[in-house]
Amino acid sequence: MSKSRRRFRRAFARTAATAAVAGAAALFPAPAAHADLVAYWDFDNPASATLVDRSPNGFNATISGGAVYTPSAGGKSGQAGDYALSFDGVNDVAATTASLLSNRARFTVAGWVRYDTAPTGTSGIWGQNNVVEVGFNPTTALNFWTHSGSSTGFATPAAGTGWHHLVTMGTGTALVMYWDGVEIKTTPAVTANYGSSTDKFKMGGQVWNATGGHFQGSLDDVAVWNDALTAAQVASLANGSATPLSVPEPAAVTLVATGALLLTTRRRPRESQGATV
Ligand SMILES: [Ca+2]
Ligand SMILES: [Ca+2]
User: If you measure from the C-alpha of residue 267 to the centroid of ligand 1, how many angstroms do you get, rounded to a whole number?
Assistant: First the structure.
């Protein structure tokens, strides 16, 4: 083969490989949010009393009692434009208008929690009264109660230790709590349904009961899933490599990996062909 023809072949192979990568990107786009993501609030719309649900489901929450956004960069990431919501422990609450946790066979609620003063009373961090209740109860423990799947908890870490990542999960066979990405408590309890109530999903108070029980501290990036997350998914949230919008379905990860593999195996014969002709 002539030198110019070989050069042409090499250039053609490079172009084809580039096109193949572009094609693969179109065939295998970045994974969408986990299909079981129910709602996600990042608290990054500080001009509004409405907390925008960043999932496609539109479960916006409304601030009442005077809960305030932290200043820009006051959110977990510490970056400009990242806000958290600060609760006064008196009457502040963020409430949806939906009973998000009713009749779940499995669920996960995850988010960042910060409390700079020790809790002075039973206080709710997130949940839905009479179905799933999470918060300080008593003041020395983080407690996770469900209507029909038992309850669990662990001793409260000291106040003033910054942001912590909390996960409360019902797998159908156990209640699982993660703290800063580590599975800190698992309590076996089998149920096909964690219960239902007409109460709404709330953050910062009115969780242990329909009224009262207000949390003093801040929350950021709270999300609800209609499934149990894997330990790897929890770790990715806690170490900041994923947000609730980028925690992928395990199936999507497999598809992307398969695409990359196909690309690799298809390119090899073409290159060796060029060398032997
Ligand atoms: Ca208040
Ligand atoms: Ca935020």
Answer: 63
